Amino acid sequence: MVSTSREQFGSKLGFILAAAGSAVGIGNLVGFPVNAAKNGGAAFLILYAIFVFAICVPVMMAELAAGRASQRGPFGCYRHFADAKPWWHIGGLLAVITPFMIAVFYLVLTVWIFGYLAAIVSGNLSAMSDASFFGDFINGKILFLYVVFVAAFVGVTLHFGVQKGIERGAKIMMPTLFFMLIALVVFILFQEGAGAGVKYYLIPDFSKLTTEVVNGAMSQAFFSLSLGMGIMITYGSYMDKRESIPGSARLVALADTTVAFTAGLLVLPAIFAFNPNTNPDDLSSSSVSLIFTFLPKIFLAMQAAIGYFGASLVAALFFLLVLFAALTSLISIIEVPVCAAMDQFCITRNKALLVVGIAIIITSLACVVSFGMVPFFTEFTQYGGGVKSFFDLVIDVFYDTILPLNGALICIFVVYQWKKHNLDSELEQGDPEYKSSIMERYINFALGTFIPAILVLVFINTV
Ligand code: PHE
């Protein structure tokens, strides 16, 4: 039973900003630039862009179309089109568990970013270059308070629903994020020595494109566009039938890639201008260690040029930028289980939000205390030759591994279960020019053949 009163985005721009808000996250601002710089510069960029437009955009279109046609989030969408074939429920289940678990660790990351911002604003930038700062910080009791702040912000936004919450939040945060990013880039590019960073970022080196790098670029692109997480299915179910899905998907991908690219013009020149002796090959490719241990040192080094206050201001702006990017992503991912609960149990948004919110917060707390506070979660399990915390486990399974599998499943589901002609007619809605276009022919071929094959390969490679 499809309710006619399903919430909708109020405008095309609102949808684009919300979807781009989901896509632009921590991965774009820090992970992408450093990966690109280390793994072949412009060569990596070209590869990444090919993956985004040839593989990820079709998957995004499939997710949006399946969501809009079923008028349900991922769980309901799989059920709706599965014709009672029970094995597809696994896809639906994965499509709800995955965002739930990603929300859990993403909430923790967002809380840390919020904590760093608070520390910088209260004048503590200098303390951050101590080797022990991060370790002490992630074990601080104040984090529990920050969890409350971040969860309250996301909760209130989601309480207001699709138009007045998600869309309005994105309409405020995304343009602000963009202006902050540009302002920071301009400031950094005018610093002496910045050019070396730009060179390092962009000089192509095709010899670096090993199998591992190719695999990494594909995973990065997939994660960056918020695919395989049920987000685009959910957002698709809130899309107006008159809007063009192919056009919107391309715009969202373009915005996401542009932000990732632009962030490279900020992060690498900053590193080279303020720490010219850095050997970029030694930089960790983990966004976490970059954001929380390496970059604060770079910001502190700015005090020689612009004073402590100036350096703190730049650092605060940067962390605010990352915070906005993280919040819009967090909102989108928590909306998935909220929407699933509303669809499945026919309950109100507030009830769904309450239940899902409490479950996410409790599971997040298990992550928060898994850095030493509670031994049970700190030494949760063992694999890959080491003791792993609960937080490690969640990241390794849900962030690193499962997304491409979910992606392959949705492609196969859409093409072979829901069927191509239904996909076509959904995509033609709101975009008559799509009919019989090259894109339509390409997608009809690719979605049922090499795209899921590549995603399965990436999955196997990561496992
Ligand atoms: N593209 C997002 C990012 O880079 C992916 C994401 C979306 C992650 C939603 C978590 C939640 O961070």
Characterise this structure.
It contains 20 helices and 2 strands. The two termini are 39 Å apart. The mean pLDDT is 91. The chain has a single domain, classed as Hydantoin permease, CATH 1.10.4160.10. It has a two-stranded antiparallel ribbon. By secondary structure, the protein is mostly helical. The chain is globular, with a radius of gyration of 22 Å. Phenylalanine binds next to helix 1, helix 2, helix 5, helix 10 and helix 14. The site of phenylalanine has 14 residues, from helix 1, helix 2, helix 5, helix 10 and helix 14.
Let me know the number of strands.
Answer: 2
Oligomer, anyone?
single chain
Radius of gyration: 22 Å
- CATH superfamily, by name, is Hydantoin permease
Major sheet strand order: 1-2
- Strand/helix succession: HHHHHHHHHHHHHHHHEEHHHH
* Beta-strand content estimate: under 5%
Q: Averaging pLDDT over every residue, what do you get?
A: 91
What's the helical proportion of residues?
Answer: over 70%
Bound molecules: phenylalanine
Coarse morphology: globular
Keywords: Membrane, Transmembrane, Transmembrane helix, Transport
Protein name: Sodium-dependent transporter
InterPro entries: Na/ntran_symport, SNS_sf, YocR/YhdH-like
Membrane topology: Multi-pass membrane protein
Q: What topology emerges from the helices and strands here?
A:
Layout: H1 12-23, H2 26-38, H3 42-70, H4 74-81, H5 88-121, H6 133-137, H7 142-159, H8 161-189, H9 194-202, H10 211-224, H11 231-237, H12 245-274, H13 287-301, H14 303-345, H15 349-368, H16 375-378, E1 381-383, E2 386-388, H17 390-399, H18 402-428, H19 438-446, H20 450-462
Antiparallel strand pairs: 1-2
Helix pairs in contact: 1-8, 1-12, 1-14, 2-10, 2-12, 3-10, 3-11, 3-12, 3-18, 4-5, 5-7, 5-14, 5-15, 5-17, 5-18, 7-8, 7-14, 7-15, 8-12, 8-14, 9-12, 12-13, 13-14, 14-15, 18-20
The site of phenylalanine has 14 residues, from helix 1, helix 2, helix 5, helix 10 and helix 14.
InterPro entries: Na/ntran_symport (IPR000175), SNS_sf (IPR037272), YocR/YhdH-like (IPR047218)
Protein name: Sodium-dependent transporter
Transmembrane segments: 12-30, 42-66, 87-118, 138-160, 172-190, 221-239, 251-274, 305-331, 352-377, 397-416, 442-463
